[in-house]
Amino acid sequence: MSDPQRYTRTAVLLHWLLGLAIITTFCVGLYMSDLAMSPTRLKLFNWHKWAGVTILALSALRLVWRLTHRPPADPPMPAWQQRAAHWTHRLLYLLFFAVPLAGWAYSSAAGFPVVVFGVLPLPDFVPVDKPLSEVFKLAHKTFAFSLGALVLVHIAAALKHQFVDRDGLLQRMRFGRP
Q1: Residue 114: inside a domain, yes or no?
Q2: pLDDT in tens, 123-170
Q3: Which one in 2, 27, 79, 165 has a CA-CA gap of 20 to 30 Å to 111?
């Protein structure tokens, strides 16, 4: 039987996998964007695209899981914090999809197809169009930095609940027994 005060094991696994993937991919994206053209830069761009597709798939799986499995009740907190948490989660889910889709559109518009793991070519999301690629490049970057900021807010709120409020909120999303 599962603990009604905790997320399911699958939800916990998806949460931490997606969190790790997003943070790692964001850091790689920052690093690779400043590199001079080289085999390393090309390899990192391909890895970044593969990670983006993986994040998109994990996000879809996580959304389906979340829609079909009720989360545990929130601990008591002021109404404004509850609203802020709910809106932050909604924006996180939106950006889980917007960031990789904008990146895929950017890659397609720039004429660089996405070939997952070097073997599975994905269809172009949009036609090749240099001006359009610049729009999607800016969208991808803006969405990615927005997601990064929201992840930091999410982490800060979780740490506040753990160390200031001491309300057990963080225990709901950890591995292991209660």
Answers
A1: yes
A2: 998 999 999 999 999 999 999 999 999 999 999 999 999 999 999 888
A3: 27
CATH number of the structural domain spanning residue 55: 1.20.950
The CB-side HSE value for 10 (13 A sphere, CA atoms) comes to 13
How would you class 107 by CB atoms within 10 Å of its CB: exposed for 0-12, middle for 13-18, buried for 19 or more?
Answer: buried
Task: Evaluate if pTM is beyond 0.85.
Answer: yes
CA dihedral of residues 32, 34, 38, 42 (deg, nearest 10): 30
**Distance from CA of residue 92 to its chain's centroid?**
7
Residue 3 lies in a domain: no
Total count of domains within the chain = 1
3-state helix, strand, coil in the chain (%, to 5): 70, 0, 25
Range of the domain at 78: 9-173
With respect to residue 164, please indicate whether it lies within any of the assigned structural domains: yes
Is the pLDDT at 19 greater than 60? The verdict is yes
Q: Centre a 10 Å sphere on the Cβ of residue 148 and count the other Cβ atoms it contains.
A: 18
